[in-house]
Write a structure and sequence with these properties.
Length: 145
């Protein structure tokens, strides 16, 4: 199916659902060179942003960008995030929402690297065929006072 990407429409719909339900909408964002966010709050290349009406001003969600003003540590910042970098939107109170499939950063597409999108997704998530390492020895509990 071709046409417009669904992600910006789903973002706006889930944002409205959160606000109408009295929940606080949060977005998880992959930070790259095109993102304008306070770098002090970025962890492992990602940031979680409260986009609720009480936390931001001038929120705009169009088909290309999410932009708004917000305060971080008492300092006002203008935030600008490409829509494909939004990894998830969810309600803080319930965790309900939607996770979006990761998109390749510009110039780092799976096809450009010679791998299929399934292989890229597995490699990105660190999924291997061997499964997680199992702890060795007998499990022990310790009382901490």
């Amino acid at each position: 199916m071709s046409g417009q990407p669904q992600q910006p429409y789903l973002l706006r719909a889930l944002y409205e659902w959160c606000v109408d339900s009295g929940y606080t909408p949060y977005i998880s964002v992959r930070v790259d060179a095109r993102s304008r966010v306070p770098s002090a709050f970025v962890r492992e290349g990602q940031i979680v942003l409260n986009i609720g009406p009480n936390a931001v001003r001038n929120l705009q969600m169009d088909n290309e960008w999410v932009s708004f003003s917000a305060r971080f540590g008492g300092v006002s910042h203008d935030i600008l995030v490409p829509v494909p970098n939004v990894l998830a939107i969810y309600a803080r109170e319930t965790g309900e929402g939607m996770v979006f499939p990761p998109s390749a950063p510009p110039g780092e597409g799976a096809e450009a690297a010679g791998t299929s999108s399934d292989e890229a997704f597995s490699a990105q998530d660190g999924i291997t065929g061997s499964g997680p390492d199992k702890p060795k020895g007998k499990p022990r509990l310790r009382v901490v006072k």
